[in-house]
Design brief:
InterPro entries: Cyt_P450 (IPR001128), Cyt_P450_CS (IPR017972), Cyt_P450_E_grp-I (IPR002401), Cyt_P450_sf (IPR036396), Cytochrome_P450_Monooxygen (IPR050665)
Largest sheet: 6 strands, mixed
Number of helices: 19
Membrane topology: Single-pass membrane protein
Shape: elongated
Pfam families: p450
Cofactor: heme
Radius of gyration: 35 Å
Structural class: alpha+beta
Helix content: 40-55%
Family: Belongs to the cytochrome P450 family.
Bound molecules: protoporphyrin IX containing FE
Distance between the termini: 88 Å
């Protein structure tokens, strides 16, 4: 429509300014009847396209009215000719004219649609989502075009870097330190707050009840947030699938984690732990002690366990995959924190080339499994199971070094239950104090500090109406440290709160313990991780007592999982 109007305007202009009057009246069959008619030649330029059109004009005292008589089109030059006697040709030419007009209208409509779509995505939609959320009393940062320049995300990274640049004092009040920008948002805006990732609104929900409702929702309206496709290089498989595909894959994988199957894996777990203990024993000096960065050691152990159970090989054989995966993790976190522009990932920058090469390397690493199996399983189990369990064990060693009374209690229980032999699954089930300690460490130092969802449909939940297209962040770390649910001693290490099990650990038995998630997507490897952690801790307690090295700095950060920033140097004393 817009184009038609401009075309008409340009016709009118051209005719008045450059039209050359051609007296072809006599050639026209009907010209005698329309004495005042004239043929006018006009030229219209659209870019490098030149339209030369001859039109029949009927003049009156004040107005021109045009009717197209003929058009013959070429790409660079379009020339209209009049065949006064050949009406068939006239008709054909009129069709050509219609074709050009249609083409012009279509391309103009496409351009217009694209423009409108951009305006809709970058401005109108975020603004209307913001309005919808604010109408419900939700506070937070406002959407503006600066969000595309990093906005809230950039601030978040800056605040985190600043906070993490200095160590914190040696205590367990870690929530404001680990998630500083989220902490500031809660202080400023309350339990539900709004911020932005480019044009996507992000709701930070720190109400555990709402969190449980969202995680257990089965409507399919809450999915895992769509990520920068570079993040996909790290992790595919069941944890990133949705709907029917997810249900099928989860059903397929679940039996592998049944207790009976895990019992069958016990020899693999114990032989990896024996390797760890022997390595540590070999490091003991003549004074009967040694200093070890247990963070690195537990990474090796967790990798070894997954290699032996999932890949059927030992850690050394799977090492290449794991090292590449570690490198990929750093590159992917960088991609995750950067602003995503579609297509940017295909630009062969040094980092993008490396990201794709790593993915290829993994495909080429020879192994009994099919390439697809390696990619899926490596990404899934290795990513989901290695970092998490390794960091859980690392924090346990740090915390038990800080609370040596609990270290003693746990050792006493292990020696009473298993003596000095390698524990079996039965023994592990009877380690109550060890379980309490491990749960309390998971509460204070959850390896997964926040879980995320994204709405794909407008959903009413817990009295809130969440529109489609909103990211939701559920900070497990905040729930685990909230005095409202855990009491005024929420920031203290008190394993006894788990003495009667997880369900009775909180005030009024409200369940706010989500280290392994909640609902249909809860962690598949929970029992796997528990066996591994118990086995390793029991064997360490049998062989060593331990304390924090003076070089340890209490400085935490999250790089997918919660980790000590400068490692975990621990002094071991062989018993
Ligand atoms: C301390 C150790 C671990 C912690 C804290 C942990 C935590 C979690 C959490 C919080 C989720 C839910 C994520 C969400 O809903 O968005 C999850 C999912 C998952 N975890 Fe773990 N995990 C641990 C160990 C493991 C291990 C050892 C494995 C496998 C060997 C594993 C495999 C998985 C899988 C496959 C999922 C995805 C389930 C699904 O989407 O259906 N995890 N884990």
């Amino acid at each position: 429509m817009f184009l038609l109007l401009s075309l008409k305007t340009s016709l009118e202009k051209s005719s008045s300014e450059t039209a050359e009057l051609l007296d072809l009246e006599e050639q026209l069959p009907w010209s005698r009847r329309r004495r005042r008619s004239r043929i006018t030649k006009i030229e219209i330029r659209i870019g490098d396209l030149v339209l030369e059109v001859k039109v029949l004009t009927q003049t009156s005292e004040t107005t021109f009215s045009y009717s197209f008589l003929a058009l013959v089109c070429r790409r660079q030059r379009l020339q209209a000719t009049l065949q006064s006697t050949n009406l068939i040709s006239l008709k054909r030419n009129m069709e050509n004219c219609t074709l050009i007009t249609t083409l012009l209208i279509s391309s103009a409509s496409l351009v217009l649609y694209g423009l409108m779509r951009v305006v809709y995505v970058v401005w109108w939609r975020p603004k209307s989502l913001e309005k919808e959320l604010r109408q419900q009393g939700i506070q937070g940062t406002s959407f503006n075009l600066l969000q595309f320049h990093g906005g809230d995300m950039r601030k978040m990274v800056k605040v985190s870097k600043e906070t993490w640049s200095k160590p914190m004092s040696l205590n367990h009040h870690i929530a404001p330190y680990v998630l500083p920008s989220f902490h500031q948002m809660v202080q400023k805006y309350g339990k539900v707050s709004l911020s932005w990732i480019q044009s996507r609104p992000r709701l930070l929900l720190t109400d555990p009840e709402l969190c449980r409702l969202i995680l257990s929702d089965k409507s399919g309206h809450f999915i895992k947030p769509p990520v920068n496709p570079l993040v996909d290089l790290l992790q595919k498989g069941v944890s990133t699938l949705e709907g029917e595909k997810w249900a099928k894959r989860r059903k397929l994988i679940t039996p592998a984690f049944h207790l009976e199957n895990l019992k069958g894996m016990a020899p693999a777990f114990s032989s990896c732990c024996v390797d760890l203990i022997n390595r540590w024993k070999n490091s003991i000096t003549s004074s009967g002690t040694c200093e070890i960065d247990v963070a690195l050691e537990f990474q090796k152990l967790a990798g070894d366990v997954i290699a032996r159970t999932a890949f059927g090989s030992c850690f050394e054989e799977g090492k290449m995959i794991f090292e590449l995966q570690n490198e990929q993790l750093v590159l992917v976190i960088e991609a995750f924190q950067s602003i995503y522009f579609p297509g940017l990932r295909f630009i062969p920058t040094k980092k993008n080339r490396r990201r794709y090469n790593i993915d290829k390397c993994k495909e080429q690493s020879g192994n009994d499994l099919t390439i697809e199996d390696i990619i899926e399983e490596c990404k899934l189990f290795y990513f989901a199971g290695k970092e998490t369990t390794a960091n859980w064990l690392t924090w346990t060693m740090i915390v038990l070094s800080m609370h040596t009374n609990w270290q003693e209690k746990a050792r006493e229980e292990v020696l009473r239950t298993c003596g000095n032999k390698v524990p079996d699954v039965e023994n592990l089930n009877n380690l109550k104090i060890v379980s309490m300690i491990l749960n309390e460490v998971l509460r204070l130092y959850p390896p997964v500090t926040a879980q995320q969802r994204h709405t794909i449909k407008k959903t009413n939940i817990g009295g809130m109406s969440i529109p489609s297209g909103v990211d939701i962040w559920l900070p497990t770390l905040f729930f685990h440290h909230d005095p409202e649910y855990w009491g005024d001693d929420a920031g203290e290490f008190k394993p006894e709160r788990f003495a009667e099990g997880v369900s009775k650990a909180t005030k009024d038995q409200q369940n706010v313990f989500y280290p392994f998630g909640w609902g249909p997507r809860f962690c598949l490897g929970q029992n796997f991780a528990m066996i591994e952690a118990k086995m390793a801790l029991a064997m360490i307690l049998q062989t060593f007592s331990f304390e924090l090295s003076p070089s340890y700095t209490h400085s935490l950060f999250t790089l997918a999982t919660l980790q000590p920033q400068h490692g975990a140097p621990i002094i071991l004393h062989q018993l």
